[in-house]
Design a protein that fits this description.
Layout: H1 4-13, E1 30-33, H2 44-47, H3 50-63, E2 68-71, E3 96-99, E4 102-105, E5 111-113, E6 118-126, E7 133-142, E8 145-154, E9 167-168, E10 173-176, E11 189-195, E12 208-210, H4 214-220, H5 225-228
Parallel strand pairs: 1-2
Antiparallel strand pairs: 2-4, 3-12, 4-11, 5-10, 6-7, 6-9, 7-8, 8-11
């Protein structure tokens, strides 16, 4: 598998990683949020209205007294019907629906930390409805293995003064969950993705792929929970 060296190095070193978002397992709770077509609460009316969608997620967090909602890696999502950027390129072709990162849903302004030292590879304001909005990509090297992490839906102010090539330190605050106007018009959250081969992209990389291409993309984008280490604290089945 293409990403196996990255998976192995992350598994060996996970105890060294700084939490990506503030989380105290002795006090804070997490819930898994279901964005597949199995969740019949997610009507088109709801997920096509960012304010209604935000209220839905906020109410779920409040209901379960959770600090964050976790959106699953490798999840086949009906919610991507909300944006044309995930549609098929030609009529009759397959749309993109398979999620390649982990979403951490929470409050706008939530700080995002560098789990490991690294370098700013690139950044962009992907300002289309349903896109990442403000986006940052870091380059890391660990035990002689190079890989990237992508931070989508962050605050625009977090990328305004960035310079490609500048370094970030372990534990440094590098971003914040963005508001809807700057995060692609989504409820506040962080899309966190690990990428082995960025394929010459800058400031962007697919966070959603066609189901038929899942093997290729999941091999290149291993499970981010090897860094986040949050799934072990999930207290509910997906809601």
């Amino acid at each position: 598998m293409k990403s196996q060296p990255v998976i192995n190095v992350l598994r060996r070193n996970y105890r060294l990683f700084h939490p990506v978002v503030p989380f105290d397992p002795t006090r804070d709770k997490l819930i898994a949020l279901d964005f597949t077509e199995r969740n019949h609460e997610l009507t088109e009316e709801l997920f096509n209205d960012t304010d209604l969608f935000s209220s839905y997620i906020g109410n779920k967090l409040k209901q379960f007294d959770a600090k964050y909602g976790i959106g699953g890696y490798g999840e086949l999502r009906g919610v991507y019907n909300r944006s044309k950027i995930f549609d098929a390129e030609k009529p009759g072709d397959e749309p993109r629906r398979l999620h390649l990162g982990v979403d951490i849903w929470g409050k706008a302004g939530t700080p995002v930390h560098a789990f490991l030292g690294g370098m700013i590879h690139s950044f962009a304001f992907n300002n289309h409805y349903g896109d990442y909005g403000a986006t940052m990509i870091l380059l890391h090297q660990l035990d002689a293995i190079s890989f990237y992490t992508l931070y989508g839906h962050i605050s625009l102010k977090d990328i305004e003064k960035l310079v490609a090539g500048q370094y970030v330190n372990h534990g440094q605050i590098i971003a914040h969950f963005g508001e809807k106007e700057e995060n692609g018009h989504w409820p506040p959250h962080l899309h966190f993705q690990v990428i082995q081969d960025l394929e010459l992209n800058e400031g962007d990389y697919p966070g959603v792929c066609k189901y038929s291409e899942r093997d290729k993309y999941l091999a290149n984008c291993p499970d981010p929970d090897s860094i986040l280490q949050l799934n072990r604290y999930l207290e509910t089945k997906p809601v």
